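Standup notes
- HV: blocked on the assembly model, inputs below
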Amino acid sequence: MDEAVVWLTIFILSVFVGIEVISKVSSTLHTPLMSGANAIHGVILLGAIIVTGSTDNDLALAVGLVAIVLAAINMVGGFLVTDRMLQMFVRKKPAKQPVGEAGK
Amino acid sequence: MSIPVWAQLVYLAAAVCFILALKGLSGPKTARTGNLIGAVAAVVACALPFFYADLDHVPLILAAVAVGTAGGVYGARTVQMTQMPQMVALFNGVGGGAAALVALIELHEIVELSSAPGHDVGWFTLLATAFTILVGSVSFAGSVVTFAKLQELMTARPVVFPGLPVVFGAALIGSVVLSVLLIREPTMWLGVVLGLLGLLVGLLLVLPVGGADVPFVISLLNAFTGLTVAAGGYVLSNTLLLVAGTLVGASGTFLTLLMANAMGRSVSNIMFGALKGGSTLGSGVASDRPVKSANAEDIAILLAYAERVIIVPGYGLAVAQAQHTLRELVDVLGERGIEVDYAIHPVAGRMPGHMNVLLAEAQVPYEQLKEMDDINGDFKNADVCLVVGANDVVNPAAKTTPGAPIYGMPILNADEAKQVIFMKRSMRPGFAGIENELLFEPTTTLFFGDAKESLGKLLNAVKAL
């Protein structure tokens, strides 16, 4: 049970980091931030790969492959769509502010 | 299976990258880099087990990764920016589904192990497994319903039937009982039934939520999936999954609360308001009270001879794909020396910040987009306030009518402008389903029609002056 306490420690500390790290987000970025966080939990792909690669049961293998497909959609699609959104924010700022905004 | 130290260190580095990614994503200048850091870390982490673990079925796994990647790329590339909220919901749902499936497979291993003598699986591991199966399924089903609502595959209004609270309560209690049974005596069928029950809970959780509140639900389910992944990380003894999942769970929950604040609503009101007797249900019926309407030429004159114009864009603008036409109109007005700004309500569009994305796509200069608090004092100086496809965010009922579902939501003070022009398709109320008193004010003029068509007419009329 000692090990569970170590895990619990990691969990609790991560909760605080998770809140602290985004606490100053402006409402403009809520949507991309949500989308980016969504992509990060797509890392469950890692878990799907591990369990699928270590099973010797055919049904479990099939279920695992489905999980891999779903998780890969989550991860890859998530990061790409977030980038697409952010691209639009970043692109025009320098273009529309030729001079005088440099010191802003 | 033990993980070699070098691999654990790489996992640690990836976890740090995820923290940096979230940090980056919360600032406008660093957002894109942040996202990139997260993506690289995720890819590296997923490649890692191929190098240290003795994996079977590698060709099949790689094929499945390729299929999923293709699906994700296709979805992310082809989605219209207006439909992005439902795309995020869908990505989130499949992630939750994947986590639930992973936990089911792990349960299968656990069941096999515990049938062998001398192997005892800790109750905490079983609890985490049950949690992952249940909440992953909730997230999956909930996200699919969310997707269907936003994609208008089903009604966006709250769906409530008489026995819903009872069925929902029974499903919740059933899930808890099944989880306890699973912890005491793990069997495969308990896990499968738990997963199915989770689907039912997810369905019943989201059905009663009204269309306007759905974005909030996406954020909440996103946090759910995060916690699911965290629990899955414990089951698989993988620290990276635990940290990544917890980060998303915590920041997602916090973000959900921020959104509820921006809408001036409490979490329980949003989720269960419809169950308490229709507080999120409006009449939904168009009123036949008299309003003042005008044609494009009249409105063009109002606009062209104003000095200061404020535009309030709403989701209707985006649905009609009229952002580009609107920007052209604003450019023409700008050439006439008129000062034009866009007033962006925090929840304009379908998600907080969604409208900024949509207008940015139409290449509206960033500095013309004004946040609510910055521009609200300015409406009284505006000659014309042009409301395009928005409704609830300028509804004075939020300030004046304590019983209204949107009461308490901060709104844009469009009613203070000297003239208000409402571009609407019909007299139908907004998402909140309540009538907007502003429509009947003497200073208000209505301009009926599809936003894109109307703006096109308006553009030509202004040019002709």
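- HV (later): unblocked. The longest strand of chain B covers residues 308-313. The first helix of chain B runs from residue 5 to 25.
- Next: hand off to the docking folks.
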